[in-house]
Amino acid sequence: MPGTKTDTKTFFITGVSSGFGRALAEAALADGHKVVGTLRKEADRAEFEALKPGSAFGKLFDVTDTAAIAPVIAAVENEIAPIDVLVNNAGYGHEGLVEESTIDELRRQFEVNVFGPVAVIQAVLPYMRERRAGHILNITSMGGIITLPGISFYHGSKFALEGISESLGKEVKSFGIHVTAAEPGGFRTDWAGRSMVRAERSIPDYDEVFEPLRQRRLERSGKQPGDPKKAAQVMLKLIASDNPPTHLLLGRDAISLVREKLGLLKSEFDAWEQVSASTDFD
What we know:
The chain has 282 residues and is of the alpha/beta class.
């Protein structure tokens, strides 16, 4: 890849017990980088540090405990190394129809998928800004661009993180800080398995539109086309680039579905262009 940097870096990755976080952590360690990874259990922390003693550092961390985030980041900066790359990976999916889901479930989805990552960004930014360097990689989803019935709360959280990422990138570009939203399609992670919270069904009217999708999602779990290890290698190339993208789709399904969405948007905008333009003052 042209225009890349090969110096070793210190990564701070949220959620390294499995999925993309674990794959990226292992790839970064194999390339000689330091990785500070967050986990929720002491046993997982010890196991993570054993991957490469002296280079892998585990931190017990809950992204929803926003008051505890800044002290953890300060400790990493002062006791381990300056953070070159922040990867907001921790998150989960909520599956449930809007009418059948609760506001508390929506609030929890945003606490983990939006408020937590933003709090981590706010804690890391002063250090990156002072150094005039850094890269923030937010693992969002193709579901931050396209939508499917039955995971609207998840889509809402990922749409929010997409917008925040894009705007943030414009705010910090002059400081030498890059911001990228990575948008995976279907990958063999725990997202559709143990990491997904499923709301209880209660309204039969939705059975026809929703039940086939829920069943298909369950059947495809563990059989998705995307390989997290290959995605991790792409992310390392992205981070090493002198000119990384603002958005990076991961997987052929993401490319296909997002292109379809963009085409539908263009068609609809074109069809209603005259109506849209009619709202300006004469």
